[in-house]
Amino acid sequence: MKIIIAGAGIGGLAAALCLHEKGFEVQIFEAVNTLQPLGVGINVMPHASGVLFGVGLGDALDEMAIRTRAIEYRTRFGHLIQSDPRCVEAGFEYPQYSIHRGELQFLLLDTVRTRLGEDAVITGKAVAGFTQDDDRVHVSFADGSSCDGDLLIGADGFRSKVREQLHPGEGPAHYEGTMMWRGANVQAPFADGRTMFIAGDHDVKFVCYPISGRAARKGEALINWVAEIRHDNPRAAEEADWTREAERDFISEYFGFRMPDIDIPTLLKNTQKITQYPMIDRDPLPWWTKERVTLLGDAAHPMYPMGANGASQAILDGRALADALAERPGPQGLLAYEALRRPITTNVVLNNRKSGPERVLDIAAARVKGPEDRIEDLISAAELEEVAASYRQIAGFVKKAV
Ligand SMILES: Cc1cc2nc3c(=O)[nH]c(=O)nc-3n(C[C@H](O)[C@H](O)[C@H](O)COP(=O)(O)OP(=O)(O)OC[C@H]3O[C@@H](n4cnc5c(N)ncnc54)[C@H](O)[C@@H]3O)c2cc1C
Questions:
Q1: Which strand ranges, in their side-by-side order, compose the sheet holding 121-122?
Q2: Cα 349 to averaged position of ligand 1 atoms, centre (Å)
Q3: What are the beta bridge partners of residue 281?
Q4: Cys bridge to 65: 97, 147, 201, 331, which one at CB 3.0-4.6 A?
Q5: How far is the CA of 9 from the centre of ligand 1 (A)?
C-alpha cells in the first residue's frame, strides 16, 4: 500500500515515521523548493513526546530541546498564579519539550530520509488537487505533473489544498483580533532554566520559555517569546505569513510587566528578528475523510496556540493514523482514524477559543489589581487546578497517579 502525504511539516513527517514503522510505503510531497528550519519555539506535550520516544527520537530530543519542568501562569505584576507541572517528576510518563520548530522539523526530516530513503520527501511539489476511483487516488501538482497512490493524507497546513477540495468555500480564517509577535534571544537563563511562563491577560499577554538544550549546556538560554495583543483590526487573513518581519511599536505595551526573574522590555529590545502572525483558526469540520483521502494536523484542525497544542495534536494524529491503518488498511482505516481524532481535536479547537488553560490569567486579572494583592487571598488553589485538570483531560495528557 502506497500512502501519499501532502506536506513535510511536523504533522506529515511524524505521520510518515509512524506509518513506516507499521510497514507502509510512504511518499511525501512538499510545496516549498527548499525546506528551511523556520519558526521559533513550539512545545511538544507529554503524550506527543511519547509518540516521538516510540519512534526512537527520545535521545535526540534530550540533546536539542528543554525538558519543561512547569508552566507558570503569572500576573503582569509578577505574582505566581499557578504552577502547572509538566515533567516526569510530576507524574507524566514522558516529558514536555520546549523546542525550536525548525530543529524539530529537521530532526523528523533527517530521520524520515534515513529510514525511508532520500527520495521519501520530494520538495518543490505543491499538491493542487486529486481525483479518486475504487482502487486509487490520483494526485495532481501545481507544476502540471501527477502521481498515483492508495491513500492521500492532506498534512498541508493551514492553507491546505486537500481541505479546500474536500470542503470548498470555507471562506477566510476565523480571527478575533489577536496579533502575535515572536522572537528568540540568547541570554542568561531565568528561573531554573526549565520554566515556561505565561503572564498578563486576554488583552496583553506574554509567553516565554527556553528552547535550546545546546545553549543550556553552555550555561545560556535561547529564550523564545510570544507577545499577544488583542486589537480590533481584522486584517488577519492576508497577514498570515510566518516570515513576516514586524515593527517594534508593540513593545511599549510591556513596559508595565514586572517579572521577578526576567526583564521583558529588555528581552524584546535585544531580540534581532521579530516576526508577526495573527492568531487564527478555522471552525471544526463535520468530516475529514472521503474514501481514500483524509486530513491531518493543521489541515484538519488549525487551532489557537492556547495550551501550546498545535504541534502535539498533529503528532498524535500521525500515531493514530498509523495504528488505525495497521488494523484496517484502506479507507476503513481512515474512517477509524477520524472517528478517534476528530472529536478530540474539535474539543481542543473550541476550548482554545475560550483560552484553554490560560483562562486562569483572566480569573486572576479580574481580581488582582496591584502588586500588593495576594493571590492566595483572592483565588483558591482548587479553582485553578480545576481549569488545569479539565484542559489536560480535553487535550489528552493525563498524569499517572503519583
Ligand atoms: C514556516 C512555518 C513556521 C512556523 N512557525 C511556528 C512557530 O514559530 N510557532 C508555532 O507555534 N507554530 C509555528 N508554525 C505552525 C506549526 O508548525 C503547526 O501549527 C504545527 O506544527 C502543526 O503542523 P502541520 O504539519 O500540521 O502544519 P505545518 O507545520 O504548517 O506544515 C505544513 C507543511 O505543508 C506544506 N504545504 C503547504 N501547502 C502544500 C501543498 N499544497 N502541497 C504540499 N505541501 C504543502 C507547507 O510548506 C508545510 O511544510 C509554523 C508553520 C510553518 C509552515
A1: 121-122, 25-29, 2-6, 151-154, 293-295
A2: 17
A3: 174
A4: 97
A5: 5
* Residue with CA closest to ligand 1 atom 6: 39
38, three cell numbers: 523556520
Q: Are strands 195-200 and 204-210 parallel, antiparallel or unpaired?
A: antiparallel
Q: Whose CA is nearest to atom 14 of ligand 1?
A: 39
Q: SS3 helix, strand, coil % of the chain, rounded to 5?
A: 40, 25, 35
392 is written with which cell numbers? 489536560
Look up residue 3 and give its three cell numbers: 500512502
Q: Report the separation in Å between the CA atom of 310 and the middle of ligand 1, taken as the mean of its atom positions.
A: 10
Q: Could you tell me which of 95, 74, 105 has the C-alpha nearest to residue 12?
A: 105
How far apart CA 328 and CA 100 sit, in angstroms, is 35
Residues 6+ apart with CB under 8 A from 191: 72, 197, 261
Count CB atoms within 10 A of the CB of residue 131: 12
For ligand 1, atom 19: residue with the closest CA: 310
DSSP assignment, residue 290?
Answer: B
Confidence label for 39 from pLDDT (cuts 50, 70 and 90): confident
Q: Tell how far the Cα of 7 is from the centroid of ligand 1, in angstroms.
A: 8
C-alpha dist (Å) from residue 260 to 199, 212, 221, 263: 12, 22, 17, 8
Q: Which residues contact 105 (CB under 8 A, 6 or more apart)?
A: 8, 9, 10, 13, 35, 37, 39
Q: In sequence order, which residues have a C-beta less than 8 Å from that of residue 127 and are 6 or more positions away? A: 6, 7, 29, 31, 139, 140, 141, 142, 154, 156, 161, 162
Cell 475523510 appears where?
Answer: 289
- Residue 149 sits at φ, ψ, to 5 deg, of -155, 180
| Cα 214 from chain centre | 22
From the CA of 296, how far away is ligand 1's center (Å)? Answer: 12
Amino acid found at 146: S
254-298 pLDDT, tens per residue? 999 999 999 999 999 999 999 999 999 999 999 999 999 999 999
C-alpha to C-alpha distance for 316 and 15, rounded to whole angstroms: 9
**Amino acid at site 139:** V
Which protein residues touch ligand 1 with a CB less than 6 Å away?
6-12, 29-32, 38-40, 42, 101, 126-127, 155-158, 161, 182, 242, 297-298, 305, 310-311, 314
Instruction: Record the cell numbers describing residue 402, joined without a space.
Output: 503519583
Task: Label the pairing between strands 121-122 and 25-29.
Answer: parallel
